[in-house]
Amino acid sequence: MIDGLDTQDVRELKGVGNAMAEKLARLHLNTVQDLLFHLPIRYQDRTRVVPIGQLRFGDEAVIEGHITGAEIKMGKRRSLLCRIKDHTGTLCLRFFHFSAAQKKQLEAGKRLRCFGEIRRGSSGFEIYHPEYQLISEEETPPKATQLTPIYPLTEGLTQTKIRQLCEQALERLTPYNLQEWLPDELRHAFSLSPLCDAIQFLHHPTKDVNLEQLRSGAHPAQYRLSFEELMAHQLSLIGKRLKAKQDVSVRVPNAGALSQQLLSQLPFSPTQAQQRVFGEILQDLGTGHPMLRLVQGDVGSGKTLVAALAAASVVQAGYQVAIMAPTEILAEQHYHNFRQWFEPLGLNVAWMIGKLKGKAREKELADIASGVAHLVVGTHALFQDTVEFDRLALAVIDEQHRFGVHQRMALREKGMKHGIQPHQLIMTATPIPRTLAMSAYADLDCSIIDELPPGRTPVNTVVVSDQRRQEVIDRVKSACEEGKQAYWVCTLIEESEALQCQAAEDTALLLQEQLGNLSIGLVHGRLKSQEKADIMAKFKAGDLQLLVATTVIEVGVDVPNASLMVIENPERLGLAQLHQLRGRVGRGQAASHCVLLYKAPLGQQGKERLSTMRETSDGFKIAEKDLELRGPGELLGTRQTGLWEFKVADLQRDKNLLDDVQKAAIQLHNHYPDRVAPLLSRWLPNHDQYLNV
Ligand code: ADP
Ligand code: MG
């Protein structure tokens, strides 16, 4: 193979010694090829002279004109002002540092060409410290023929220097030493220009280019590079997934009698969607390789039952199942449900949360380690080193968005210690927008429960200012008097957990004063688990009519008779969180209502969020909007640094490419397998790390 530019050290270039190489290394520029992919962040147009009359503040422009005068101004800072004029207007050059010779040189009547950023000065247009040259009337020096690239810099590296280096790198660039890994077939199918052309162009766009298009990243040359980069990411995820699938896991041959028995105990039958997803899970479990499946289903779609059916099949095959929830309240609820479902079948359910101490903890640990426990429900305490499973074969992770990828992986390792790779079933109510599904989650197979159990009524959402708080309180009162139950959720997102609990306590007191005849409960994060559990149980049993809570009830809480929810300060919460909260109502037969009680006045973002909530209950639409408002990093709940560090691409901006990128990646993977590794090392030099996340 030819010596590629990726093997040529930057020190081979003129003007790069060890010291410069070190500076370049700070920008991850180690090879000549790295320089080629070090693209300008923007461009200056020095190809044409702009008439002063056409300037706009903030432009960077070349101007030519005659000097009408130069003088020293005292003001706050001494400065040299030089006024120039063309046939359309006048402009002022301002120098804070200048020499006597300089002032002398800027003589009235002389002609000047200058370049700089147009600012708003006391006298109209000004340029501070322009680059300038005196020119003659008859013979003007040549202007730039191409746009001037502006590169990202680091300390000790100037634009001039990096330009020279990129220039040298471009001189070396040929299709032989920077190989085109995208086959012609793919390039034609997706209208992608040759790689070398795109790189040449982006370092030196021709002057007729549409600058606006270039700025927004929509130019075909940028598209070409983003496409290849996204493809590389996609290929690495495909690789990761295939690798995970080669591992050996427990084979669960069929659904088994236990899951049938479980179903026959229920007062309802599973929806079509639940059955379909259970079928998809069974297929995975039957392969003998680890399942990595994400189940998405809107709040209330019945994910727990699907997990329970999968768990029953695994237990039937003789193995243990762990069910992990992100909060104690939810873990508690799952524990309750699973015991109700499984104990009649003669199975044991163990329990593990951080706060469990002493003898009780030891008993649970012993049951888990000996295999007496068939199922274990808990929080992330399940990851602790002291928890030893006997024969874990399935980990169910509920509401994945609350767990980091690392926690997910830690659980996988727990099973690995015993030589079995556990199956993983990840359940989320926060729909994963396509952008993320095809990137961060592309290593998972995905099932969707796209149907709610029958008889649900959509939640009617109203947005009310806290100036009408009293009306809202009255409404809670009359709903509860009619036998309904209600939530009152207190949120204080920026402040500490302690403050949030305090706010809930205060609110509970105030409401109790005003609603003396209602029985009101309070739950928040600082209560002991037993206290929380008791209150939730009372609310579920209908002994409490109103539950004042912090966002601890956000996830998974299921009390079908609760049909009214008031959320305070909803404008401070993210959309996904609001959707989760609202999902606590609308679970029974009664028409449900959600009151978003905001603090006036509302900011723009707040307005947009609340009206989205009022207009739709479609989790997917809400998630897309959330992504738009917040960006992918935050939505993932974990800073997956690395995954989002693209050289050229931008997931949000380039999301329309993703479908094609995925198709192209699959084609390349299937038909040109030799090209995968070079593409990965071009774009993801550390991609081995990705494989081991
Ligand atoms: P989520 O998907 O939000 O986790 P859950 O699993 O908590 O939803 O289910 C919500 C409620 O719907 C629970 O009370 C559950 O018992 C009930 N449920 C689940 N599946 C069905 C079904 N097929 N028919 C009727 N009710 C169901
Ligand atoms: Mg749930």
UniProtKB/TrEMBL annotation:
Pfam families given in the database record: DEAD (PF00270), Helicase_C (PF00271), RecG_dom3_C (PF19833), RecG_wedge (PF17191)
* Single GO biological process annotation from the record: DNA recombination
Keywords in alphabetical order, please: ATP-binding, DNA damage, DNA recombination, DNA repair, DNA-binding, Helicase, Hydrolase, Isomerase, Nucleotide-binding
User: Entry's InterPro entries?
Assistant: ATP-dep_DNA_helicase_RecG, DEAD/DEAH_box_helicase_dom, Helicase_ATP-bd, Helicase_C-like, NA-bd_OB-fold, P-loop_NTPase, RecG/Mfd, RecG_dom3_C
Q: Which GO terms describe its molecular function?
A: 3'-5' DNA helicase activity; ATP binding; DNA binding; hydrolase activity
Every Helicase ATP-binding domain range? 284-449
Give all residue intervals belonging to the Helicase C-terminal domain.
Answer: 482-628
Tell me its EC number(s), please.
5.6.2.4
Q: What class of enzyme is it?
A: isomerase
Fetch the Gene3D superfamilies from UniProt. Answer: Nucleic acid-binding proteins (2.40.50.140), P-loop containing nucleotide triphosphate hydrolases (3.40.50.300)
Q: Which reaction does it catalyse?
A: ATP + H2O = ADP + phosphate + H(+); Couples ATP hydrolysis with the unwinding of duplex DNA by translocating in the 3'-5' direction
What does the record give as the function of this protein?
Answer: Plays a critical role in recombination and DNA repair. Helps process Holliday junction intermediates to mature products by catalyzing branch migration. Has replication fork regression activity, unwinds stalled or blocked replication forks to make a HJ that can be resolved. Has a DNA unwinding activity characteristic of a DNA helicase with 3'-5' polarity.
Family recorded in the similarity comment: Belongs to the helicase family. RecG subfamily.
Q: Which PANTHER family is this protein grouped with?
A: ATP-DEPENDENT DNA HELICASE HOMOLOG RECG, CHLOROPLASTIC
What the entry lists under NCBIfam families is as follows: PRK10917.1-1, PRK10917.1-3, PRK10917.1-4, PRK10917.2-2, recG
The protein here is known as: ATP-dependent DNA helicase RecG
Organism the protein comes from: Marinomonas algarum
Task: State the taxonomy lineage.
Answer: Bacteria, Pseudomonadati, Pseudomonadota, Gammaproteobacteria, Oceanospirillales
